[in-house]
Amino acid sequence: MSSRRVLVTGGGGFIGLHLVQQLLECGETVRVLELPDVSLPEHVEVVCGSICDAATVSKALKDVDRLYHLAANPNLWAIDKNDFRRVNYQGACTVLQEAAKHDLEVIVYTSTESILTGKGRREAMVDSTVKRLIQEMPGPYCRSKFLAEQAAFKAAAEGQPVVIVAPTLPIGPGDRRITPPTRMILDFINSRTPAYLECGFNMIDVRDIATGHILAADHGRHGERYILGNENLTLSKFLGQIEEVTGLEMPKIRIPFWIALATGAVCEFFADHVTHRQPRAPLTGVRLARYPMYFDSNKAINELGLLQSPVFQALADEIEWLLEKGLINRRLPLLQQT
Predict the structure, then answer these.
(1) How far is the C-alpha of 329 from the C-alpha of 335, rounded, in Å?
(2) Is the pTM for the entire model greater than 0.90?
(3) For residue 108, what are the domain limits?
(4) What is the pLDDT of residue 338?
(5) What pLDDT does residue 265 have?
(6) Which three-class secondary structure string do you get for 204-269?
(7) Would you put residue 310 in left (φ > 0), alpha (ψ -120 to 50) or beta?
């Protein structure tokens, strides 16, 4: 059994829960820094509070050997746009500043694939060496995560043992907070989306992302970024996979980008000023979909040993979990035979 003590910020999130479970299975002593009223597995030490509070972060870091910093606002829209900068950027800066006061083996910082693409880019495939500018970020979420990743690189350059991982779209069971990829799946299954904007993206089993964090801590080079991804897909192909799992007919109508952009603008206006609820088509999401988001994860595969579990099986597992949790409101012919 390991005697190592690790801290996971955001351990109650989609990736965080799987990471915490895997760390426990490895025999690690796990401490989680989370907001109040977030359920966590047994045998986890919990520090309640915000990553924006230096005293709370300092308390959570006491006697820790490794730090996994996952805590962030993962949504593409928020009623208070300043929340992205406060949590994602300033929170990351607070965590890194407090971590610098401790003798840690390694700090794994969780970035995102959405900041690795840019306006008018030319690459057919994006790899871990790509460099972007803040002006290329399509919305407040991406800007906040871009700045946070820059802070992580700066911390590494100043001598902190920081390894950066950039997961692509996670898929699989356990997304209790309904992050954007899961919301997209639910909208299509529950018939809330009659048409679609063709786009390209990369998906990976969330359980492989969690394992990838541990592999990055074990084998990652300080100051390096590793893309944790698997399969590049078009949305039309992904909808075909949903059909194959559920037996439901998915939308066949493709809309042009300008219609999606106009729809996104209207949806976000009403979300901001009327409903104050998550819009069905956040503008940041529409803008990200303008160019294919295809990624090359060979660096993580070759250097870390990143797993490449079938994305189709992860989709099937997620849909079964969503059904079990009562989040699907239609009968699925291939999963509900009676």
Answers:
(1) 13
(2) yes
(3) 5-171+204-229+294-308
(4) 44
(5) 85
(6) EEHHHHHHHHHHHHHHCCCCCEEEECCEEEEHHHHHHHHHHHHCCCCCCEECCHHHHHHHHHHHHH
(7) beta
Phi and psi torsions of 121, nearest 5° = -65, 160
186 lies in a domain? no
> Is residue 30, in this structure, part of any structural domain at all?
yes
Residue type, 58: S
CATH of the domain at 153: 3.40.50.720
Residues 153 and 176: their CA atoms lie apart, in Å, by: 30
| pLDDT tens-digit map of 81-116 | 899 999 999 999 999 999 999 999 999 999 999 999
In a domain, 315, yes or no: no
Whole-number Å distance between alpha carbons of 145 and 141: 6
Nearest to 6 by CA among 67, 51, 55: 67
Cβ(30)–Cβ(6) below 8 Å: yes
pLDDT of residue 262: 87
- pLDDT value of residue 125: 87
CB atoms within 10 A of CB 334: 13
Query: Which stretches of the chain drop beneath a pLDDT of 70?
Result: 1-2, 119-123, 336-338
Position 271 scores a pLDDT of 75
* Residue at token pair 């779209």: 169
Question: In which residue are the tokens 């990976």 written?
Answer: 204
* Number of structural domains in the chain: 1
The DSSP code for 72 is S
149 in a domain, yes or no? Answer: yes
